[in-house]
Design goal:
Blueprint (H helix, E strand, L loop, with lengths): L1 E5 L4 H12 L3 E6 L2 H9 L3 E4 L5 H9 L3 E4 L10 H19 L5 E7 L16 H15 L7 E7 L2 E3 L6 H12 L2 E4 L5 E6 H14 L4 E4 L3 E5 H12 L3 E4 L8 H4 L8 H7 L2
Parallel strand pairs: 1-2, 1-4, 2-3, 4-5, 5-6, 6-10, 7-9, 8-12
Antiparallel strand pairs: 9-11
Helix pairs in contact: 1-7, 3-4, 4-5, 6-8
Length: 274
């Protein structure tokens, strides 16, 4: 298949590109800047200039291909979650509308960081009331299953790790370096699931090739790592104290680091031999 992919030059997206190329797929990748275009060309795939805020570029890219993998998410301002989620919904609408009635695959990316307290499973539907604006994006995407699109949601944990990681955990490391202590919130028993980016990339390919319309897949390798353990590893590596801190110690990231958000991938492994 020739796949339209967003976020191809990113940490997760570049791993997905590698996985899809290895499986014999070709790609047309969205690029909003010269730097992104150069990075995409270095991956030996075709460039489609556009932006998540340019619906026409998304529609034409999606319509020109045999399927879509949507890895991109705006991080222009990490703290402005509502606006970032609005951009994502608009991007999903543009690409989804281009695929209506085609039965082409449309794999979107969703975060598991808003569910908590127990191991969240694949059969549980995102709740907009508790999951907020990001959950609304998954609900929107899943609505295309009844409109002739083979849409699926690949849910990623807050820690997707591997060489070159620049997500939440590296941010925690930077905060520890700047403050001279590696902190955790409360007793640090709240849990974060995790996965290696290459394992997640393989699941993106499986979703693209196999997932039925409306499927939800969990890219979860570790169901829940206590945040105290995360802080301990960081502190030991840096040789600084590990101790409880106030949520404000982490600025806006504190809201995420305080979450207890375990998740299971049992059904994903059973259904897709991941």
């Amino acid at each position: 298949m020739n796949i339209f992919i967003t976020g191809a030059s990113g940490f997760v997206g570049s791993a997905v590109v590698r996985e899809l190329l290895g499986a014999g797929h070709t790609m047309l990748a969205l690029a909003r800047s010269d730097a992104a275009a150069a990075a995409i060309k270095s991956l030996c795939i075709d460039v489609h200039r556009g932006d998540l805020t340019d619906p026409e570029s998304l529609r034409t890219g999606a319509a020109a291909c045999d399927g879509v993998v949507h890895c991109a998410f705006s991080h222009d301002d990490f703290a402005d979650r509502a606006n970032n989620c609005r951009k994502d919904r608009e991007a999903i609408t543009a690409m989804g509308d281009a695929l209506v009635g085609s039965n082409k695959p449309f794999v979107i990316t969703f975060g598991l960081a808003r569910f908590g307290g127990r191991a969240f499973s694949e059969d549980e539907v995102a709740d907009v009331e508790t999951g907020g604006d990001r959950a609304a994006g998954e609900v929107l995407a899943m609505s295309y299953a009844s409109r002739g699109v083979r849409v699926s949601s690949l849910r990623l944990p807050p820690s997707v790790h591997g060489d070159g990681d620049h997500g939440f955990v590296p941010m925690l490391i930077d905060i520890a370096k700047k403050t001279g202590r590696s902190g955790y919130i409360g007793d640090g028993a709240n849990r974060w699931p995790a996965v290696h980016r290459f394992d997640a990339a393989r699941l993106f390919r499986i979703a693209l090739e196999q997932a039925p319309a409306g499927a939800r897949l969990h890219a979860v390798g570790d169901e829940g790592v206590p945040t105290r353990e995360i802080a301990t590893v960081i502190g030991n590596k840096l040789g600084i104290p590990v101790e409880p801190v106030a949520r404000e110690h982490f600025a806006w990231l504190g809201a995420f680091f305080a979450l207890d958000t375990p998740a299971t991938a049992a059904l994903t492994r059973e259904r897709f031999a991941w």
